Amino acid sequence: MSVSLLLAVGVLFAAGTVLLLERTLTRVLLGVMLLGNGANLLVLAAARPGAPPIVGVAEPAEMTDPLPQAMILTAIVITLGMTAFLLALAYRSWLLTGHDEVQDDAEDRRVRELAERDEGSDAEDLDADVVEAPR
Amino acid sequence: MTWLVPLPVVMPLLGAAATLLMFRRPRVQRAISVSVLAATLVVSAVLLVLAADGPLVVAVGGWPVPAGIVLVADQLATLMLVVSSAVTLCVLLYSIGQGGADGDEEHPLSVYHPTYLILTAGVTNAFLSGDLFNLYVGFEILLAASYVLITLGGTETRIRAGTTYVVVSLLSSVIFLAGIGLIYAATGTLNMAQLVERLDALPDGVRLVLQGMLLLAFGIKAAIFPLSAWLPDSYPTAPAPVTAVFAGLLTKVGVYAIIRTETLLFPGGRVADLLMVAALSTMVVGILGAVAQSDIKRLLSFTLVSHIGYLLFGVGLASRAGLSAAVFYTLHHIVVQTTLFLVAGLIERRGGSTALDRLGGLARTAPVLAVLFLLPALNLAGIPPFSGFLGKLGLIQAGAGDGSALSWLLVGGSAVTSLLTLYALARVWNLAFWRTPATVAVAAPLRSSRLMVTSTAALVVAGMLFTVAAGPLYALTDTVAADLLARSPYVRAVLP
């Protein structure tokens, strides 16, 4: 297993993580792509390097393990689909709001403001308007 | 009879293809979806009966076992299959009823039925998978479908909520994939039965890293504190049936994956203390969040997080009694939480909102709705004789049987959480159902079709059935727990 491959994985993961913490969806998207490729390289590093795994071209003992490559192929397809979906989300967000920054949840903000004003989350207190059971 | 095993995955996938082709014919779409899910339910029930004689194993594509992918239908997987397919069927009927009531017979979203069926296929694939990579694929199938469902319609709030959900889920998928890569590097296999012995042979430190990676990935999906903040943020804005099926199933797939990997791959309870602490904080933080909310859907999302803590408590105990109660509680919670979200959907249509300060007097104006809410609410809070009480009782007994200081702390935490759940739900009841109707004029309530009410009622009844059948069901989960701890039945079935 080569050290350079693992270093590349480390760099991809680090850069991806930084980008993922951004508020702008486009940067998050770039972060997801870097992270996905980092994971793919990591899976690739799991396999023993060697000759192409084609019967007749190389001796079985010298072949690389084809299974991680098959898994990476699956993972690449999945990452591609997810990237396309995120891109569509970013575009939709831009269409609706004119930017692609992820906003705070409105309800979260409301609960927080209520807490700051030291009020309960029930706008009307219970005692005030509990009714008698219907007769 | 092993040819039945792939059907719960294959049928919804084929159904999804068929409904996609029929996108111009909503009536045909509905007929296909309902019959496919009904057939899945029947097949799952048959599999549950067959699995009593030992796990059914299918090597997909006829590849020799450790090299190819296997599907394993043991009792745990089939129990989850039966409950999940019953729930998905009821929610599908509810959403069909909602489509009918809204009069969008002419222009329904043609993408809804195919996506819903793919979601089902992902869930069943995750339950049946005997291979870690196939489990990953199962997760991706259900997540990809859930991304579409949670942003259905593409309104501003749904896009905002969906973005959080998608990004967090993608992160957990990357961690899972990296974990798979590391496990393959360390052991050279991803077949779970083969992993059992190969993981046991690894040095302790390496095993701990692998276990930590998987726990982290599944912990995000199962919404365990401190990895749970995304859930109450993203679930409430989706359409009612979508939120309901997500709440019932998606987090439970994460819990199922935790139960499976913690018992089969990493037994011995090395991280038991960590799991217990996470369980306690999930319960307490979740329920305190619920108490602070003033919107029914958000409140229910927080109770969902909180009750994941109970399931984790049972897993952390790692004893037969603990696992048995955890499986029982998982099954109960799938049904009850889904029901409550469906009822919240009905409340929203009747009262025009799910905000507690805008609702009132529903007990008088909508008595049927009141009954439909009260029964699952009491069930969730754990009032005897409902199954929520029986599940919590089993967990508390298991915790007391364990006897360590931490498990007594957890026992106390479960009791407090249960009381606070009752408080949170009683607040909903007082404000939405018993108070005088709000002075704010409610916009004309949307009509709820009979199908919506009937399918919700069916789930309420299903929740009651857990109480009636608690004895036999506990006997069943007890053998499930024994098999999980023994590990050998699973391994011998896959690698004879």
TrEMBL record, chain A:
Q: Does the keyword Nucleotidyltransferase apply?
A: no
Here the segments flagged for biased composition (Acidic residues) are 121-135
How does the protein's chain sit in the membrane according to the entry? Answer: Multi-pass membrane protein
- Which superkingdom? Bacteria
**Cell membrane keyword on record:** yes
State where composition is biased (Basic and acidic residues): 107-120
Q: Which residues cross the membrane?
A: 70-91
What keywords are assigned to this protein? Cell membrane, Membrane, Transmembrane, Transmembrane helix
Question: Where is it located?
Answer: Cell membrane
InterPro entries per the UniProt record, alphabetical: CPA3_antiporter_subunitC, NUOK/Mnh_C1-like
User: What ranges does the record give for the region Disordered, renumbered to this chain?
Assistant: 106-135
List cellular component terms (GO): plasma membrane
Any Pfam family matching the protein: Oxidored_q2
Family assignment?
Belongs to the CPA3 antiporters (TC 2.A.63) subunit C family.
Show the PANTHER family listed in the entry.
Answer: ANTIPORTER SUBUNIT MNHC2-RELATED
Its name, as the record gives it, is Multicomponent Na+:H+ antiporter subunit C
Automatic annotation (TrEMBL), chain B:
Q: What GO terms in the biological process aspect are recorded for it?
A: ATP synthesis coupled electron transport
- Which is a Gene Ontology cellular component entry for this protein? plasma membrane
Which subcellular locations apply to this protein? Answer: Cell membrane; Membrane
Q: Which UniProt keywords apply?
A: Cell membrane, Membrane, Transmembrane, Transmembrane helix
Q: What are the TM regions of this chain, as residue ranges? A: 6-23, 35-56, 76-97, 109-127, 133-153, 165-186, 206-231, 238-259, 271-292, 299-319, 325-347, 368-386, 406-426, 456-475
- Enumerate the GO terms in the molecular function aspect: NADH dehydrogenase (ubiquinone) activity
* Similarity comment: Belongs to the CPA3 antiporters (TC 2.A.63) subunit D family.
Query: What is this protein called in UniProt?
Result: Multicomponent Na+:H+ antiporter subunit D
Q: Which organism is it from?
A: Actinoplanes campanulatus
